[in-house]
Amino acid sequence: MAIEVNRLGKHAGAEVIGVDLSKPLSDDVRETLRAALTEHVALVFRDQTLSQDQFADAVACFGEPIPQNFVDDRLDNPCVSLVSNTIPGANGERVYHASYWHTDHTNRESPPSFTALYAVELPPSGGGDTGILNTRVAYEQLSPRLRERIENLETVNVYSGSATPYKSHKAATLKHSDPDTPWTHPLVRTHPDTGAKALYLHMGKLERFEGMTPEDSHVLVRELLAEIERPEFIYKHQWRRGDLLIWDDRTSMHQAYADYDLNETRTLYRVIAGPQRPA
User: Fold this and answer.
1) Which of 21, 47, 145, 240 is 20 to 30 Å from 214 by CA-CA measure?
2) pLDDT confidence of residue 69
3) Phi-psi category of 232—alpha, beta or left, where left has phi over 0 and alpha has psi -120 to 50?
């Protein structure tokens, strides 16, 4: 079967048809998929049946898988972790995780270029979609005043930041292997393959913008959100079991929507890949 890549959202998201990720991929197919991901920011592969190792191998098509930082939800394959509401919050209850816009692991020197999720168990009543926001288009369509203001700003990132009201229950309760050293990255980064500029930000790990207080940084974050959180910039993925969703962290932010029944289980596998210092 020939590979089809069908656009899903206006500025993000495409479905790939004709690829079985449980099998080895030829160099030509790998090149096609990498180009499609660069163009569409996020790719969906439906109806996949993958073991943990096969999942990690599939993601390796795009970049080298990175060992997971959370100790308690790491699976048999050290590069695969569990994303699930069965992981308890601070009081032992089920909670929503990562339900705010972010780009993974900005508190590291070389964060991942790619994040992938594989759907294992989903809430029968629906909900729990994953949103992908195209931060390249969002940056390009910022008001001139705000774009000029942020052009040369840098973010100071720690494991649990102070410049945002968003606090992850998971971050507060799970053991992790991330260093405590703050890392500084450009708020506007350049994609190494295309040269395009995009916003690069983790709302939960932002301690402050360089040269600003956490309080003033928080105000600026709110200004940014008011301009970039627009439906046309976002692809909202409605999960089906067996879906593999991968996105380019260098031109996107993502979040899990906290709109499902916590008494129902939502479990996905996760792989991050392609460590790279933002520039």
Assistant:
1) 145
2) 76
3) alpha
